[in-house]
Amino acid sequence: MRESVFTLESVSFRFPDDSEKTLDNISFSIFRGERVVISGPSGCGKSTLLYLLNRLYPVNCDGMVSGNIFIFSKPAELYAPGEINHRIATVFQDPDSQFCMPTVEEELAFTLENLHVPFAGMETRMVEILELTGLADLRHANIQSLSGGMKQRVATACALIMKPEVLLLDEPISHLDPFTAKEFISWLDELQRQFDLTIVVVEHRLDAWETFFQREISMDGNGEIIADQDFSARRPILFPERVSAMSGETAISVTDLSVKLKEKMLLNSFSFKAKRGEIVAIAGPNGSGKSTLAKALCGIHKKSSGRIQSDGIGYVPQSPEYLFLTQSVKDELAFSGLASREELTELMERLGMDGIKEAHPFSVSHGQKRRVAIGAMLADKRPVLLMDEPTSGQDEAALYELFDLIDGRARDGSTVFIITHDMEFAASIADSVLLIKDGQLTGKFAARDVWQNEQLLAEHHLLPPKGVAKLAESFA
Length: 476
Fold this sequence. Notes:
It comes from Planococcus salinus. By secondary structure, the chain is an alpha/beta fold. The protein folds into two domains: 4-230, P-loop containing nucleotide triphosphate hydrolases (Rossmann fold); 250-312 and 382-474, Rossmann fold (3-Layer(aba) Sandwich). The protein contains 14 helices and 19 strands. The strands form four sheets. A six-stranded mixed beta sheet has the order 6-7-8-3-9-10, sandwiched between helices. A six-stranded mixed beta sheet has the order 15-16-17-13-18-19, sandwiched between helices. A four-stranded antiparallel beta sheet has the order 2-1-4-5, with helices on one face. α2 (104-114) runs parallel beside α4. The longest helix is centred in the middle third of the chain and has 18 residues, at 178-195.
């Protein structure tokens, strides 16, 4: 008989300030050694469900739970606070939220100290996990100096150093480049087989996982389970074909742009132009300088040299909450005052925010925060728009709407730069691709010339998008 790790019987959950349940009548079992993915629309309660499994909820919030939750066949409420955490390790959606120490080494040591590991045994444990996760060269690195992808790997290393029986991951590859994501999944596959880990993942980028998962538990927007099925039964996302809206007029010109910080050259002599109506994907390995470029273009990072000429740039950062200035989603979108009431209503409807328009921007899910930031910047109507990982945390319906909104903005004459590791989305929408590696600009290429060039893709930790043959035919 298979050993149950989690069993939920008619479980519902509601936050005290909400009139509706976040989770409604959830029932399932997950068994030792299984690999399960939880999918569904942004804000449907996937992360909340994960936090019930690791006892973060309701212990650390005022939420109300009904039904029965069993962890390792024991009623969840009988575990003392923190008792289960060494057996069930969690990697959160925002890795910054779980770091307490400045360097990688200190963060790993802090985790071991909390587990009461003797000092004499710490070195061996740290060396093992650093080698296993490919982070040995970053042992003494300052965590906040790392890229989003590297932070995610550090957070995973901190979870694994506890030698857990269960690993819960909340969108672990959302900030990883395709090659690194594939390596991460392959490494996780080997680790699971070696230690018979039970792995539960909340995820939107399902195609990247290929055959890793055995089961998919799908939720709807009402916090209910609508399917519990074999993972192989799912279908891939297919975007519509797009006709370029590029004009001949230059919207932004960058000449010899360099950025140096504390004697370290982050960007070295970037030069490129983009036209009105052009959609440009910015791609490359984690830590290559993509986000640094976006911040330099909009003035967050001071340039060391060079020139940027544009008519005005809007920016949606990788951590969208940095943009929020108001107390509600609807006020956030209306903040610039440039969009009409009708335009704001349409934006909220298309971005799926009708149900959260009165909510505080900080209280909604990660995927919803990103859509709030995107909506606010679209309402701001800047001629040039920079989006850092806009597809992260977005379900299928949101991706289709994002595609239409970006395409529509380009047709209105705006120029859009998209930093992304989602090659399927990039291949469906981009006119051109800026490839970056080690702070150097490899070049700006027509998109059709990139997807077929396996060597160029490999050099920049990218994988050919699925359906590339069809794309090549459409460009012919």
